[in-house]
Write a structure and sequence with these properties.
By secondary structure, the chain is an alpha/beta fold. It has a single domain (5-236), classed as 3-Layer(aba) Sandwich (Rossmann fold), CATH 3.40.50. It has helices spanning 14-25, 37-49, 64-78, 101-129, 141-144, 150-170, 188-191, 195-203, 213-224; strands spanning 5-8, 29-34, 53-58, 81-86, 132-137, 175-180, 235-236. A seven-stranded parallel β-sheet has the order 3-2-1-4-5-6-7, sandwiched between helices. The radius of gyration is 17 Å and the shape is globular. The two termini are 31 Å apart. The structure holds 1,4-dihydronicotinamide adenine dinucleotide.
């Protein structure tokens, strides 16, 4: 992987941070994006301190101009993006009856529009090179749904559908597109969900524990690698056994 470049969105925290660190350890030059410039740069600095190669860029994946700028910054730093990980995301709970239009729109803006915009930015160069990998971070809630999470579950289901559709379009031209659908993982995002939700969820997990970000990063690293050459449009589930497909 030495010399190839990866762009990880929302990588200033949690799963994205772990993915960025793992990919850097695997030899990628990593462009670390986050909404927060401080968090993104802190992760890039952590990677460099460990001997890896990283740069950071702040911006909103749901904003077309930000995405164009971030893509240009990533290309300027490390050349064409060979691996894109669409990880940026937010959590928000609401009963469906009281779900505000603004919260519904925000959820789809970050997850669905963000995945669309970022992928659209990197894909032309991947197709021109006849090689590239996209890994989308969905969620098992996009497969089974979650109470008070219609907007989140819907956005994640959309990401799974987009993953499959794009994989059908581009895999014969050398670009592999897959998704991961993690179960509950110990990150700040999950700590934003209610304590009741977390206790109930833990009780039903066959493994009896939430996952760690590094365990999701390992799945992403596999999908990114040539070892995953037959994985096309798949959704892998590092999920403590909560969903078995
Ligand atoms: P986190 O809250 O620790 O990190 C998410 C990062 O994304 C934050 O640093 C945030 O600033 C950034 N971000 C948010 N909106 C952004 C935007 N518009 N543009 C750029 N960056 C943005 O959350 P976590 O848990 O690491 O989540 C990462 C991904 O994993 C999300 O897509 C989430 O939905 C997904 N996921 C998380 C699970 C969990 O249990 N933690 C389970 C399944 C999926």
């Amino acid at each position: 992987m030495a010399g190839t470049s990866a762009l990880v969105t929302g990588a200033g925290s949690g799963i994205g941070r772990a993915i960025a660190i793992r990919l850097a350890a695997d030899g990628y030059a990593v462009f670390v994006n986050d909404l927060s410039a401080e968090r993104a740069e802190a992760v890039a600095a952590e990677i460099r301190a460990a001997g890896g190669t990283a740069a950071s860029g702040a911006g909103d994946v749901g904003d077309e101009a930000d995405v164009a700028r971030l893509h240009a910054e990533a290309v300027a730093a490390f050349g064409a993006v060979a691996l894109l990980v669409n990880n940026a995301g937010i959590a928000h709970q609401s009963l469906f009856e009281s779900l505000e239009v603004a919260d519904f729109d925000r959820m789809f803006r970050v997850h669905v529009r963000g995945t669309f915009l970022m992928t659209r930015a990197v894909l032309p160069a991947m197709l021109a090179a006849g090689k590239g990998v996209v890994v989308n971070v969905a969620s098992q809630l996009g497969q089974i749904g979650g109470v008070e999470l219609v907007h989140y579950s819907g956005a994640k289901a959309a990401i799974i559908g987009m993953t499959k559709a794009l994989a059908r379009e581009v895999s014969a031209r050398g670009v592999r597109v897959n998704a991961v659908a993690p179960g509950p993982i110990n990150t700040p995002l999950v700590m934003d969900l209610s304590e009741d939700w977390r206790a109930a969820k833990k009780a039903e997990l066959p493994l009896g524990r939430f996952g760690e970000p590094s365990e999701v990063a390992a799945t992403v690293a596999f999908l990114a690698s040539d070892e995953a050459s037959l994985f096309v449009g798949q959704t892998l589930g590092p999920n403590s056994g909560d969903v078995m497909l």
